[in-house]
Amino acid sequence: MGSRFFNPRNPSGSVKSGEHVELNGISCSYDLDSEAGSGEYATYTVHIPLTPDNRPSGLDIQLDGRVSQRVEEHYTANSIFTGGHNSVTRAHLMDKVTESEASHPQMAGSKGSTCAIPGCDAKIMTDERGEDILPCECDFKICRDCYVDAVRTGDGICPGCKEPYKGEFAAVDNGRALTLSSTIGVSKEERRLSLLKSSSPRSTLMKSQTAEFDNNRWLFETKGTYGYGNAIWPEEGGNANGENENAGESIKLLSKPWRPLTRKLSIRAAVLSPYRLLVLVRMAFLGLFLTWRVRNPNEDAMWLWGMSVVCEIWFAFSWLLDQLPKLCPINRCADLNVLKEKFETPNPRNPTGKSDLPGIDMFVSTADPEKEPPLVTANTILSILAADYPVEKLSCYVSDDGGALLTFEAMAEAASFANLWVPFCRKHDIEPRNPESYFTLKRDPYKNKVRPDFVRDRRRVKREYDEYKVRINGLPDSIRRRSDAYNAREEMKALKLQRHNKNDDEPLENVKVPKATWMADGTHWPGTWVVPGPEHSKGDHAGIIQVMLKPPSDEPLNGSSIDAKPIDLTEVDIRLPMLVYVSREKRPGYDHNKKAGAMNALVRASAIMSNGPFILNLDCDHYIYYSEALREGMCFMMDRGGDRLCYVQFPQRFEGIDPSDRYANRNTVFFDVNMRALDGLQGPMYVGTGCLFRRTALYGFDPPRSKEHPGCCSCCFARGKKKPASVADAPEEEDESHGLRETDDEMNLALLPKSFGNSSFLIDSIPVAEFQGRPLADHPSVKNGRQPGALTNSREPLGAATVAEAISVISCWYEDKTEWGQRVGWIYGSVTEDVVTGYRMHNRGWRSIYCVTKRDAFRGTAPINLTDRLHQVLRWATGSVEIFFSRNNALLASHRMKFLQKIAYMNVGIYPFTSIFLVVYCFLPALSLFSGQFIVQSLSVAFLTYLLGITITLCLLAVLEIKWSGITLEEWWRNEQFWLIGGTSAHLAAVIQGLLKVMAGIEISFTLTSKSAGDDADEDYADLHLIKWTSLMIPPITIMITNVIGIAVGVVRTIYSELPQWSRLLGGVFFSFWVLVHLYPFAKGLMGRRGRTPTVVFVWAGLIAITISLLWVA
């Protein structure tokens, strides 16, 4: 084992301008007076030591470039990096990451031969197949560190045969070997991003009239030459090498018939036209009804009439906010064949047909392994690793916000099992590619499988999966036993040391050894310990990055016949995407901003390590159900006009929900009606998971061609094309743009650290990500495109300097005095950070797309018991109240957002307030029955006509919505029922909590929704009957009991009255029945299973019933 340290000798951290600081084997240069380091931001360059033993920097070790890259990448992939604020950044070389042996050559701690040097037990270097790299013809096995020592101290002599190294390992240049790294002496900034001056700077970097540099023009109009990873930015008028030999071929390519990647499928006019007409008719009925109600008060019960009229006016307003954005629903479809033809088919620019698709960084977030089972998270990771997307273009980052060793080792087990599962999926076209879901499918698994060895392969993989589940489920006990053993050993050592240092007559003191959590290689876990200790608790631990699976090779790597695999993989690509474990640093006194902060840490770390121009985030319980979902999302991003898309949102689909969907957990009305309708405006909202982002949109930049929408309904009915406005012509929003200035013909990036922080690597990656995310310029109509074949080059190897920089950007102090969470990345300040983040993008003029695939793209889990469902809705509603009282209120939106899109966002902030009027209105029928009055003087013909018209139009609208959205009548009715259940419970509590936060500053804390099964795990839908008492149940229970008692009182009074008022009784009973029918699922949920209803339910019910009865008698 070895360690690399990144620790300044100056512990205070203060440096003078131009001071050169020597680190522990590292050279750091600080320049506080440079342009990029003006103000409070310092630029720095870190030079990694050439060997782990921190030898003097004056000694020049040099190796062949190709070997050095493999050496560096091998070291990086087998090291866990830790560090943070005022702490050492350390790269700890690990022998193993789990108790079981790693089998895949890309995996950290993968099995390999041991170094033959006496006294060294390190593993030797391996290639992409996991085979040993032997630098000498004598096949002497030597590890990376010993080989470097042999070159440094032994003049390149092999310790085995005593002969000089030959071939690519030979010493050259007067006995000196080639450089250890091809970039030694070159700054990381220059190596990662080379920015050349344009031949016409003033034509590409134009100053605005206010002399401020336009960051969007910098991103979208620069003609410079960029090169990083697999990107080449050709110069104007030529290819990447300045040549113009393929000009004729390009013209020929552009002359081909252009085929779009996506199509817009309009809803049939026979359905949509009547739907819009019915909306107008119902609006007319509502207007006439409310006018009649105001002009015809009930003189006998003005209080009852007044409350009912106010509630009805609000309900009409709320219905309008919900209905108007539904006027323009559309459907879309993607053509995967065209995507393959354009990006993965040989052409003059890409003769080999290598994938020209941009990279995607996948984010998986988890926080608590007790509420989010590690097996669920691990299977989500497996579905990502097996996705049908170019392996070298896919990277997976797992954010463990709890810093738990359990999650870390579960990830390692998933990476190990992926060695078998991913090739099996590719070989037999398995769907879905989550092993738990696949092996529990209730359909014939052998259908449409033509390979003769499928049955044997499936049986063997199933056996391996069962063992894999046992290992993951046994990890908590394994970690506990291991930690207890190591802690006992440490106590014995401390006791022996105490006895050795004390005299025989002195009494021994109690030995206090921290109850540490130990990793599989026998070292302390740097994250959260099972028994929390100083700097090892959930809110206080170092930042951690571990590359579980190093980046794959560029060329396909088929399995070999000599591999000890349970199945034959000789014709299957066995490469795996890069997999990285990330746990950001947490320290007391810092606001870590929950999930939004964790996502922003992943954005920064991924920008430095892989810099995929697109990001797809998933919750730990949402897995890829359709392996080609990423390709369908990429069709929209790469199509004409795709550069103006900020994200592609996929619908959420859920498993494990009871067949009747008692509490509307599937949310089909929202996902299939509201979201599909928003797609016809400016795009759907971001709903927290299953969303493919454009990285530069997350960075807070404006779209390349933004429009203003001053009109009310131009987004629905104005179909004429408008001339797009330039970004420079669009008025800048004070709170939505980054401040950049241009003082010369060159770009001045001095103010970017104020937005993105002082990592020059992060800032340098921004234009690269923007260029890689452009659509192909394969047609003159495609604006802001890139040349075909620009993304076919190999990516840069992953080095220790890169991971060390990633550690610095996930530290707790990095966001201080920057715009992360304010204008950049996921937005802070709300428990529903997803809606706010999407709103900010739409407010800058970006568009979004709703991608509904024929097969569900992603599937996840949802709480099916009543208590968890109410708490989930409470969290959403509280976030909406926070949005209403913040500057993210749609009333303050810019002109770049369409009018009906503003209405939709306005409804998001207003809908919880409907609960106030809804609770009052649900009590009105009982109050009318108690008092013998009604909301109207009498049931006149006018009142019944208006009521009948409103009801019929509502039913007809529901039928047409079902027709164009594809939902069922039962799903629509369940949504109506839970609207009243949530409105009388969780929404009301959300309004109260939101008002307390705004007026009194009382913060609201929420717990994670548990994804684990109930106690009766063997029974289907066991959680459905689980009842946990919560105060949210009090209002609905009170409403139900009050209405039941009201009906009984009204019937008795009318029967025994001298002048019975049957019309008033009929009206009160009808509306009470309407309330009780909507609350029926709630009442059924309270009953649970026979004999399991909580006693507190009966106690509250009895107390409330007695209280109401006594009040009525009085």
TrEMBL record:
Keyword Zinc: no
Residue stretches spanning the membrane: 904-927, 939-960, 1037-1056, 1062-1083, 1095-1113
Binding site for Mn(2+): K595, D619
Keyword annotations: Cell wall biogenesis/degradation, Glycosyltransferase, Golgi apparatus, Membrane, Transferase, Transmembrane, Transmembrane helix
Biological process per Gene Ontology, one example term: cellulose biosynthetic process
Membrane topology according to the record: Multi-pass membrane protein
SUPFAM superfamilies: Nucleotide-diphospho-sugar transferases (SSF53448), RING/U-box (SSF57850)
Subcellular location field: Golgi apparatus membrane
Binding-site positions, UDP-alpha-D-glucose: S365, K371, E372, D401, K594
Any Gene Ontology CC annotation: Golgi membrane
A molecular function GO annotation: mannan synthase activity
Positions annotated as active site in the UniProt record: D401, D834
Similarity section: Belongs to the glycosyltransferase 2 family. Plant cellulose synthase-like D subfamily.
Protein's name according to its UniProt entry: Cellulose synthase-like protein D3
Top-level taxonomy: Eukaryota, Viridiplantae, Streptophyta, Embryophyta, Tracheophyta
